[in-house]
Amino acid sequence: MMAICLKMALYFILIGELFINTMSYNPMLTYVIRFKKFYVTPNFTMDYYSFDQYKDTQYINGQFTINTKELINKVVAVFERCDPDGINCEYFQSWTVTGLCNKLKEKNQIWTRWYDSFDPPMRCPLNKGKYTMKNGTGDIGPILLLYPQATDYQWRVVQNMYANDIFVGSVSVEIVFFGYRKKIKSILNP
Q: What phi and psi values does residue 69 have, to the nearest 5 degrees?
């Protein structure tokens, strides 16, 4: 009888521990952006950059130079989605943004967090000179609202910048969405 009680107690302890460890994680995945590559082309020079991580969020820090006096007033963002390994990429869509000066002032947009990370601020006119990016990242919330399947792919985003119809340069970034389960804080532990 004592052996049966010990077995049952051990069983409940193991099942209880399994239950606590299983239920202490949110069953829904939380996604964050992970950067793979970052590069610029003509009329932009990348002085230095790094991918830095703080807690669960990854950031781009660095400095680049705009080497032209042309007034950038249009951006064409080209989105390519790639398979989970980042190998086979295909055109997904493109956005043409005109009225750039007004767009950069808008808050709570898909680009706000990215452009707010620059010093001096990315506001019009975008002058020739050095720009420092501190803790640059994207906001995943609006991305998932626009395209919930975004997390199934790796992405290449090329921002081609123009002065009227004259190509000035581009900034490219390759990203992947990293999913993990967040640990839930126990209400039982003080």
A: -95, 0
